[in-house]
UniProtKB/TrEMBL annotation:
Keywords of the record: Hydrolase
Organism for this UniProt entry: Novosphingobium umbonatum
Lineage of the species this protein comes from: Bacteria, Pseudomonadati, Pseudomonadota, Alphaproteobacteria, Sphingomonadales
Pfam families according to UniProt: Lactamase_B_2
Domain Metallo-beta-lactamase: 38-230
PANTHER family linked to this entry: HYDROLASE C777.06C-RELATED, HYDROLASE C777.06C-RELATED-RELATED
GO molecular function annotations of the record: hydrolase activity
CDD domains linked: metallo-hydrolase-like_MBL-fold
Region (Disordered): 1-33
Protein name in UniProt: MBL fold metallo-hydrolase
Length: 259
């Protein structure tokens, strides 16, 4: 498998808009391209060329164009917060020329909320076809050559979905937007070849993992390789890279990882 970090930033991106003197880079060096972060999303590709997209971030069109991605097979959503789903309309071109809609999946509550907000995507409208055939994850075991497993994760007062994807004897896990570590998460992510994990900042946060929690999840799941994502403006790429263990990497937009 290969994994592409389409976006590695928090909900406001880095730099944050509208600082007192222009874009707010916080502690991030504006001269380091890896500090320029769009909203969090990943893409997985297997040896057969099948592609899964996880989340339709606010910056989806920009991300797909920047990485020359012009074909998708299925879409998964972690949850319905704006930074993870408001780029959904950019899926429309992927419907053109297809015999049917894209496959789409989410946990039951995520599916319900997405249907309420983006009905035209999942049911068509005014003669336009359905873009995504949206289903719950309850009975899903395989999708276009990828084994799929999942669990719900506490995300402050809300819930997010953590995913485990298996293909060709390798395991990729994706855990973004969580605020505590559960036994279900440890069991799901245990032994991952790659764990892409939420790491908002160093200080504790009520709805996201901080650096110590991210490293703790990596430790107890014995993940072989770890990539940090959903980073805010306090997380300078070069500085953070010097703090983390050797098997942990600071993610950045456009980062490809061979698994």
């Amino acid at each position: 498998m290969k994994v592409l970090l389409l976006g590695s930033g928090t909900s406001t991106g880095v730099p944050r808009l509208a600082g007192p003197d222009g874009p707010d880079w916080g502690d991030c060096n504006p001269n380091e391209p890896k500090n320029r972060r769009t909203r969090a999303s990943i893409l997985l590709e297997n040896d057969a060329g099948s592609r899964l997209l996880v989340d339709t971030s606010t910056d989806l069109r920009q991300q797909l164009m920047a990485n020359d991605i012009h074909r998708l097979d299925a879409v998964f959503w972690t949850h319905d917060h704006a930074d993870h789903c408001h780029g959904i309309d950019d899926l429309r071109p992927f419907r053109y020329g297809r015999g049917g809609p894209l496959l789409g999946y989410g946990a039951e509550e995520t599916v319900r909320r997405l249907r309420n907000r983006f009905g035209y995507v999942f049911a068509g409208q005014f003669g336009y076809p359905t873009i995504v055939q949206l289903e719950t994850l309850d009975r899903l075991k395989m999708c276009v050559g990828f084994g799929v497993d999942w669990c719900l994760m506490r995300h402050g007062p809300a819930m997010s979905t953590g995913f485990r994807f298996d293909c060709d004897g390798k395991v990729v896990s994706y855990a973004t937007d969580f605020s505590e570590i559960s036994d279900e998460m440890v069991n799901l992510f245990y032994g991952s070849d790659l764990l892409v994990v939420d790491c908002l900042r160093r200080d504790p946060h009520p709805t996201h993992a901080n650096l110590s929690m991210s490293l703790e999840l990596a430790r107890i799941t014995k993940a072989k390789r770890v990539v940090l994502t959903h980073l805010d403006k306090s997380m300078d790429y070069a500085t953070l890279s010097q703090e983390v263990p050797a098997h942990v990497e600071v993610g950045y937009d456009g980062m490809w990882v061979d698994v």
